[in-house]
Amino acid sequence: MQTHNPIHKKLWEAIVSNNHSYDGKFFYGVQTTKVFCRPSCPSRIPKLENVRIFYHRQEAINEGFRPCKRCRPDQLQLPIQEWIDQIKRFLEKNWSNTISLDLLANVFHLSPYHLQRTFKKCVGVTPAQYLEQIKVDQAMHYLQETDQTMKEIAQAVGISNAQYFTTIFKKKTGVTPSMYRKSKGGNRVGSAYTTNDLLDNISQ
């Protein structure tokens, strides 16, 4: 006779979808690895028959399960704003690199869908748009303070294609990099395109 798995359908769906909203409400352990995780853990989805549900982390520990090193269920969950601030600091520190949504999701132990949705809800723009604005701000500095070519500046801010760099720059500022350089941040461009204005209009 086949044994019925007692895991509630909603809990299993939360695990499969890496649903961050269930974090703190329950934890799940994997019998074959003796590891327990948060529902939002981006690790490979285990087989249903190998899963055990715990409503307190200590229950899992008492049963001999060890905390996952990716989602760290043994640590207190960060408030959403602190979590968002960590992502912003990561982007601001690594702006010259190519940072994909999947990479961010892996670093911060969330599903790409939930990370993007929550970040945009809190910040007003997607992580990619936020990173683009940082790159443009840095490019504005290079354009004003150096004699580097457009290709060199594009590469310096982590954009390999100079034409794409020009497209992004104009989308964010309303002028091409060459036009901005000629103005050297003068009254026409400086007054119309301050950094705060650009951040306010990043999603337009």
UniProtKB/TrEMBL annotation:
<dbReference type="GO" id="GO:0008168">
    <property type="term" value="F:methyltransferase activity"/>
</dbReference>
<dbReference type="Pfam" id="PF02805">
    <property type="entry name" value="Ada_Zn_binding"/>
</dbReference>
<dbReference type="InterPro" id="IPR018060">
    <property type="entry name" value="HTH_AraC"/>
</dbReference>
<keyword id="KW-0238">DNA-binding</keyword>
<dbReference type="Pfam" id="PF12833">
    <property type="entry name" value="HTH_18"/>
</dbReference>
<keyword id="KW-0010">Activator</keyword>
<dbReference type="InterPro" id="IPR035451">
    <property type="entry name" value="Ada-like_dom_sf"/>
</dbReference>
<dbReference type="GO" id="GO:0006281">
    <property type="term" value="P:DNA repair"/>
</dbReference>
<keyword id="KW-0489">Methyltransferase</keyword>
<dbReference type="InterPro" id="IPR004026">
    <property type="entry name" value="Ada_DNA_repair_Zn-bd"/>
</dbReference>
<feature type="domain" description="HTH araC/xylS-type">
    <location>
        <begin position="85"/>
        <end position="183"/>
    </location>
</feature>
<keyword id="KW-0234">DNA repair</keyword>
<dbReference type="InterPro" id="IPR018062">
    <property type="entry name" value="HTH_AraC-typ_CS"/>
</dbReference>
<keyword id="KW-0804">Transcription</keyword>
<dbReference type="InterPro" id="IPR020449">
    <property type="entry name" value="Tscrpt_reg_AraC-type_HTH"/>
</dbReference>
<keyword id="KW-0479">Metal-binding</keyword>
<keyword id="KW-0808">Transferase</keyword>
<keyword id="KW-0805">Transcription regulation</keyword>
<protein>
    <submittedName>
        <fullName>Transcriptional regulator, AraC family</fullName>
    </submittedName>
</protein>
<dbReference type="InterPro" id="IPR009057">
    <property type="entry name" value="Homeodomain-like_sf"/>
</dbReference>
<dbReference type="GO" id="GO:0032259">
    <property type="term" value="P:methylation"/>
</dbReference>
<dbReference type="GO" id="GO:0008270">
    <property type="term" value="F:zinc ion binding"/>
</dbReference>
<dbReference type="GO" id="GO:0043565">
    <property type="term" value="F:sequence-specific DNA binding"/>
</dbReference>
<keyword id="KW-0227">DNA damage</keyword>
<dbReference type="GO" id="GO:0003700">
    <property type="term" value="F:DNA-binding transcription factor activity"/>
</dbReference>
<dbReference type="InterPro" id="IPR016220">
    <property type="entry name" value="Me-P-triester_DNA_alkyl-Trfase"/>
</dbReference>
<keyword id="KW-0862">Zinc</keyword>
